[in-house]
Design a protein that fits this description.
Elements: H1 2-5, H2 31-42, H3 50-55, H4 73-79, E1 109-110, H5 115-122, H6 129-137, E2 170-171, H7 180-188, E3 194-195, E4 199-200, H8 201-205, H9 209-212, E5 217-218, E6 224-229, H10 233-246, E7 251-256, H11 261-264, H12 276-289, E8 294-299, H13 313-318, E9 323-327, H14 341-350, E10 356-360, H15 366-375, E11 381-384, H16 386-390, H17 394-400, H18 408-426, H19 430-447, H20 475-480, H21 485-496
Parallel strand pairs: 2-11, 3-6, 4-6, 6-7, 7-8, 8-9, 9-10, 10-11
Antiparallel strand pairs: 1-5
Helix pairs in contact: 6-10, 6-12, 7-18, 10-12, 15-17, 18-19, 19-21
Zinc finger (C3H1-type): 48-74
EC number: 1.3.1.-
InterPro entries: Aldolase_TIM, DUS-like_FMN-bd, tRNA_hU_synthase_CS, Znf_CCCH
């Protein structure tokens, strides 16, 4: 009871380790230094021109001496790392592939960026007739566009499609770690609904390939949405029209709850909670532009103790949203303290019957899920976020109503599947291998927080419990419990081979760490 009150996981005494010495962390490199290193790395002979790698001919590159990649085929083959064991999952990389000679499968992903559309976006020649028509209706000025092809008007509002979230297990859109390979893992383990990582509307409208990659969908994602973020109605209107035209999605989610400074400072994310009239314009214009269901994700408010969402519940429905997800924390709280589910219940009970309300925050076991869905039947379902990052088999636990004492071997098999999906998604050349490794390490910066059921004196584990130093029931379980990035790298080497010389890793996202004990 004393440990639980201090938010420390009550690990059985026989598994506890003595406190270890603090780890000395290396100084972070500046952005300029990192950029210079990337440029130098790109000039390396290991970065062979994709056209040459695909054909095996140095004459196949159209850019010749102006190409930013290496054309030294002989030097590349001499320095290319040894191939990885196994078969290539999917490959357009030719000689650069780390599974060279085993190319069989075709990609099963959709929602790629069409090159012709990208060029129109680059030149600002894309027409957004439906979006601009809706902006005029609500009296919002839009920026002028150059000549473009005309597009058809939107479907009548009564033709708007609907989607039923009730009782379905919903994997939250998760920045960085909620990538396509991770979502495939969650689908196999029982997730019903998946959503792409948050994409910035301005970046999509500029044709940035890296942002469009966040919209990609795997064929296994049978109920799939994308989440977009923007500060102004014209940005959102044009983004939803572009997605409706170019992508295959079941719904579009508007992020109005992101707490990250770089997003909030631009007036997007949770900054919109301070501007209800702009919220209204954004939701109205998005819903009026496309026939797909438009959902909204918010926090309880901007400042702690000043909840702002409950007075807007009926309005959000009136503005056209099909569903509303409420994360039970304010922007000021970020990920500290426990989610306020009482307030989520209050909002769900205020909502009109036609508006589906979803709760989000701290669900980490089937008992958490049961508690929230039984205490508030008005909730359509619950969204699962960090709980799925730490243990993606939470979906299996909910469906089978059990606390799964998953073995280290079973957990390692899940990581193997992620790596396979990652090589299929990011590529099986050297760059794809290292990209897969990077995202695997980002995920491992969450998974170490899981304490096996068999090691706990009290179950289920709570999301805010910090595990003490402990060892597992075998060496692999002990390794997976390590909070050291060096051990995460070691796990990655078990799956992807040795890291490059000078490789370092530091987790990107702040929500993978624990808050102070007094914050719960």
């Amino acid at each position: 009871e004393d440990l639980v009150s201090k938010s420390i996981a009550p690990v059985k005494k026989e598994y506890l380790l003595p406190p270890s010495l603090s780890v000395i962390t290396k100084e972070k490199k500046s952005k300029r230094q990192l950029k210079r290193e990337r440029q130098q790395e790109q000039k390396s002979v290991l970065h062979i021109c994709p056209a040459i790698a695909k054909t095996g001919s140095v004459d196949s590159c159209q850019y010749l001496n102006k190409c930013r990649f290496s054309h030294d085929l002989e030097a590349f083959q001499a320095q290319k790392p040894a191939d990885l064991p196994g078969n290539c999952p999917f490959c357009p990389y030719g000689l650069a592939c780390r599974f060279f000679g085993t190319h069989k499968k075709k990609s099963s992903e959709v929602n790629g960026l069409n090159k012709d559309v990208q060029k129109l976006l680059w030149k600002n020649r894309m027409n957004f007739h439906r979006a601009d028509s809706q902006l005029k209706l609500i009296g919002v000025n839009s920026r002028p566009l150059k000549k473009a092809k005309d597009m058809s008007l939107k479907l009548n509002s009564r033709e708007k499609k609907s989607i039923d979230f009730r009782g379905k297990l919903y994997l939250a859109p998760l920045t960085t770690v909620g990538n396509l390979p991770f979502r495939r893992i969650c689908k196999v383990l029982g997730a019903d609904i998946t959503c792409g990582e948050m994409a910035m509307g301005t970046n999509l409208l500029q044709g940035q390939a890296s942002e469009w990659a966040l919209l990609r969908r795997h064929s296994s994602e049978d109920l799939f949405g994308v989440q977009i973020c923007g500060a102004y109605p014209d940005t959102i209107a044009r983004t939803v029209e572009l997605i409706d035209q170019e992508c295959t999605v079941d719904f579009i989610d508007l992020n109005m709850g992101c707490p990250i400074d770089i997003v909030v400072n631009k007036g997007a994310g949770s900054a919109l909670l301070l501007k209800p009239m702009r919220m209204k314009n954004i939701i109205q214009v998005a819903c009026g532009t496309v026939d797909k269901p438009v959902t909204v994700k918010v926090r309880t408010g901007y400042l702690e103790g000043r909840n702002r969402i409950d007075p807007l519940i009926a309005d959000i429905n009136h503005w056209g949203a099909s569903a509303l997800t409420i994360h039970g924390r304010s922007r000021q709280q970020r990920y500290s303290k426990l989610a306020d589910w009482d307030y989520i219940y209050q909002c769900a009970r205020k909502a009109p019957d036609i508006l589906q309300v979803l709760g989000n925050g701290d669900i980490f076991s089937y008992s958490d899920w049961n508690k929230h869905t039984s205490e508030c039947p008005e909730l359509s379902t619950c969204m699962i976020a960090r709980g799925a990052l730490i243990k993606p088999w939470i979906f299996t636990e909910i469906k089978e109503q059990r606390h799964w004492d998953i073995s280290s071997g079973e957990r390692f098999s899940v990581l193997k599947d992620f790596v396979h999906h990652g090589l299929e998604h990011w590529g099986s050349d050297t760059k794809g291998v290292e990209t897969t490794r990077h995202f695997l390490l980002e995920w491992l910066s969450y998974t170490y927080r899981y304490v096996p059921v068999g090691l706990l004196d009290v179950i289920p584990q709570r999301l805010n419990w910090r595990p003490p130093s402990y060892f597992g029931r075998n060496d692999l379980e002990t390794l997976m419990a390590s909070e050291s990035a060096a051990d995460w790298i070691r796990i990655s080497e078990m799956l992807l081979g040795k890291v490059p010389v000078g490789f370092t890793f530091s987790p990107k996202h702040k929500s993978n760490v624990y808050d102070r004990a007094e914050n719960g």
